[in-house]
Amino acid sequence: MSSSGSMEVLTSERDPRFANFLVFARRFASRPIGVISLTVVLLIAFAAVFTDIAATHDPLETLVTTGAEAFAKPSFSNFFGTDQLGRDNYSRIVDASRTALMVGVVSILIGAGIGVPIGVTAGYSGGIRDEVLMRLMDALFAFPGILLALMIIAALGTGIENVMLAIGITFIPSFARLVRGTTLSVKEQEYVLAARSIGAGGARVAARHILPNTFAPVVVQASLLFGVAIIIEASLSFLGLGTRPPDPSWGTMLNSAQRLISSEPMLAVFPGLAIVITVLAFNLLGDVLRDLLDPRLRGSS
Amino acid sequence: MRNFIIRRVLATIPVLILISVVTFVALRLLPGSPGSAILGPEADPAAVEALNERLGWYDPIYEQYADWIAGVFQGDFGYSQRSNDPVGPLIASRLEATIQLGIMSLALALLIAIPIGAIAGAKPGTPFDYGLTFFAVIGVSVPNFWLAMLLVIVFALELGWFPTQGFTPFFDDPGANLKGMVLPAFAIGVALAGNLARQVRAAMVEVMQQDYVRTARAKGLRERSVLVRHGFRNALIPVVTVLGLQTSLVVGGAIVIESFFGLPGVGKLIIDSILFSEIPTVQALAVMIALGVAAINLIVDISYAYLDPRIRYS
């Protein structure tokens, strides 16, 4: 990494990782799109964690309990209006952000947790293990993501846990392929050879010398797949095969908006916007991270 | 070239076998049994048991797989549990709408993506280029079904230009058919266009930095000729490779969009079959789609090797 100031040199003597992180943070801060998308992601995460603060109403409170109006227009008391039961649309969207983020986090942990070890094993061992593992990944990859998720849902049943598992499984081949590629290129590096020549075993080399190098591409991939996870969850819920009430979901909201589309088209607008803004933020963040973390692209833009 | 094709076809065979195993095993985990699906929830348990026995439900799973795969090779995909119709012809009757939807959305995507991707890539860093990048990211961030809802609200309900639902076979009434397919094709095509435009742009940027482009300029060719003959034509080669991925996206899009627009295609059949636990139909569809995607990827790889000879020898 470069060392541009005396401060940096001093800190780097203390802890090179921290210095690397500072360099990275400084470069990230100079990218307005990165800063904006990270801010949006953090705001959504805040809304998801502190729903009581972010929401203005109880998301489940209906007109029966409050005497509120059904299909109220957007106003100061109901930012996005109310739905057919008099529930506050804004608070319901805030409530559902928790589902979206949870599905994203858990499905990526599942996909990376299984896919990364497969990729490292395949790339590092080579030979028949590589062949078998990667053909299996090819077979999974031949199914369009949503179809594979639908098949798993069909086998396991609907509900948020199965949705997260299904989406996570569809992500396994993406991580495995990516990590296998990185492993293949790192494997030939001299420091790996050096580690092996002093007697480090396969598992140790894979864990200490190869795995850390896959970190950056995996983070970029995770950010991009986060958006995909949110879209698949919303699609499954929209089809009535995803998250079940009372778990809130933007897809479920759009499913009920669909039935009222000719009389109350506004109901379809806000949950969809919530999806687009969230997914857009993760995609832009992923793009910026890729620019900053991928050495091949460094300096080209 | 022939060796490359043989090698590539042979490499596909284990993948095809794995696809069939994955599908078979995944759907064997379905709750319930074919007997209860056919006879209904209130049937006599003994009768359900007898029917399951007759259908081979209690045989070892590898025997069931062998039976099923033997049938598939003879074009026998089993029978629908509700209507008792053979699954093969049922799927065949649904292909028309899906194939038309796929071709229209892909054509639409290419029509949008190639010109704007090429222009942006020829002049990187211009406002037009930034505009394209932004459009492309938005394109992949919008869920297709939500775009479909917005299109219906504006162009079907408000303006009344297109129907909200339904399908007319092309040969019955081409006009009505196309009218009904425009919004669904747009709903799928926009996301594809975003993806493709980025690929075309990247390829164009790469090509314009090549030595032969500099040579073409140096020998005094007009810029227009450099861009089209040396730049654009070479930039389209890598774009071929991403068409395989697009097929997968088209099918995924069709599943959601056909259900939304009530198009009688393969995608809607999948959803209906899952909702009614029609195992033989889901199984046949999943295998056929995965086979189709694998086959298209194979064709794409081969045509890429044909277009770019370097690939054949790697």
Description:
The complex is a heterodimer of chains A (301) and B (314). Chain A has helices at residues 6-14, 16-29, 32-49, 51-54, 63-66, 89-125, 127-141, 145-156, 160-187, 190-197, 202-238, 250-259, 269-293. Chain A is built from 13 helices and no strands. Chain A is an all-alpha fold and 301 residues long. Residues 1-8 and 297-301 of chain A have low confidence and may be disordered. Chain A has a single domain, classed as MetI-like fold (Orthogonal Bundle), CATH 1.10.3720. With 314 residues, chain B is mainly α. Chain B has a domain at 95-264: Orthogonal Bundle (MetI-like fold), CATH 1.10.3720. Chain B is 78% helix and 0% strand. Chain B contains twelve helices and no strands. In chain B, α5 (87-122) runs antiparallel to α10 and α11 runs antiparallel to α12. The model of chain B has no long low-confidence stretch (mean pLDDT 82). Chains A and B meet through α7, α8, α11, α12 and α13 of A and α1, α6, α7, α10 and α11 of B.
Topology:
The complex is a heterodimer of chains A (301) and B (314).
Chain A lengths: L5 H9 L1 H14 L2 H18 L1 H4 L8 H4 L22 H37 L1 H15 L3 H12 L3 H28 L2 H8 L4 H37 L11 H10 L9 H25 L8
Helix pairs in contact in A: 1-2, 3-6, 3-13, 6-7, 6-9, 6-11, 7-9, 8-9, 9-11, 10-11, 11-12, 11-13, 12-13
Chain B lengths: L1 H27 L5 H6 L5 H11 L5 H13 L13 H36 L4 H15 L2 H15 L15 H35 L2 H8 L4 H39 L4 H10 L3 H29 L7
Helix pairs in contact in B: 1-12, 5-6, 5-8, 5-10, 6-8, 7-8, 8-10, 9-10, 10-11, 10-12, 11-12
Low-confidence stretches of chain B: none
- Helical percentage of chain A: over 70%
The biggest sheet of chain B, with number of strands, parallel, antiparallel or mixed sense and barrel status, is: none
User: What fraction of residues of chain B sit in β-strands?
Assistant: under 5%
Helical content of chain B (DSSP H or I, runs of 4+): over 70%
Distance between the termini of chain B: 12 Å
Oligomer: heterodimer
Structural class of chain A: mainly alpha
Strand content of chain A: under 5%
Shape of chain B: globular
At CATH level 2, the architecture of the domain at 95-264 in chain B is: Orthogonal Bundle
**Basic shape of chain A:** elongated
Q: How do the SSEs of chain A run, as a string of H and E?
A: HHHHHHHHHHHHH
What is the total tally of β strands of chain B? Answer: 0
Number of strands of chain A: 0
Number of domains of chain A: 1
Main sheet of chain A?
none
Number of helices of chain A: 13
The CATH superfamily of chain A is known as MetI-like
